[in-house]
Amino acid sequence: MNLSNTAINKIGDTIRRGIKDVEYEDSVDALNVWREAHVKLMDEYYDKCVRIMLTDESTRNIIVAQRLKRLPTIIGKLNRFKTMRLSSMQDIAGVRMIVRDMDQLAEVEKIIRKWKNFERVRDYINDPKSDGYRCKHFIFKKDGMYVEIQLRTQMQHIWATSVETVDIFRSSSMKFGGGETYWRDFFRQTSSAFAIAEGTNPVRCYSGKSLNEICTLLKETMDEHRIGQSLNAIEITKLISVDEHIEKNAYYLVLDLDFNKKTCYVASFKEPEYDLAVREYQTLERKLDQGKSVVLVSVSDIKRLDEAYPNYFLNLRFFNESIKFMLEMNKKRG
Length: 334
Description:
- By secondary structure, the chain is of the alpha+beta class.
- Helices cover about 45% and strands about 20% of the residues.
- The chain has helices spanning about 5-15, 20-35, 40-55, 70-80, 100-110, 155-170, 180-195, 210-225, 225-235, 275-285, 305-310, 315-334, and strands at about 65-70, 95-100, 120-125, 135-140, 145-155, 240, 250-260, 265-270, 290-300.
- The longest helix is centred in the middle third of the chain and has 17 residues, at about 155-170.
């Protein structure tokens, strides 16, 4: 797009104003074009991340995925952050790397920091967000556009996607600061327990507490509010089922999710078919009803799609198992 930052920011300001007139509709169309303009840059860094995964046998367990930020999410972010400029939104294009543990994360980080166009890193592992979110965000800028690489361990990934899954089931918004206080406490406590287990910092409000103390608080929260029963109820709910008609050598996937019917239909496209994938994505996005979602993603191993995006498939199994294991180990330690 040959637009100045001023023109791009005007698009964002018009959408933020929220008056559904012709100018608003034109701005949404322009936002779609601006979003799509990020694809080439996103693909470039996605391929770089995949090459790390393919380096040797020890890195084959890494999951690499990419996604364009959904239109409702971009608009929601503009509305939540009134001073944010659309031209400086850094996560329209996102690549995610899910690694085994903190040792592997450190090795991958050394490589990423050497890449061209590196701007900055937001370290939410050494300094977790107040809600418990932990990850490292590496920001790259090229040709006036940003791409964000999220680097997280499997444990950090399980936690983050479980927040989104519980939000879907409870129609809450903990990811954006909403939801009941006890649920927010529960996720801060689980995050802090996971952090100490990984040898990193807990959420600041639990700084100085031992793993035993945090697990004790976690069990109290779960018992008082019957959170374990709620999580089990979600886990035994029929998971999102995926149709099996994914083409061989698929590169782009359009996931058409219905959280009420517990279904996910996948349209798959090869790498040269990006225009077709975007057309399908935009067509479905315009028809969205409540309880539905559509996303355009790529993942390095199609067979691990539900591991890369467990929140899209309402899968809490690994999260539940991790909590049960941690509480059981804490009980044995006395």
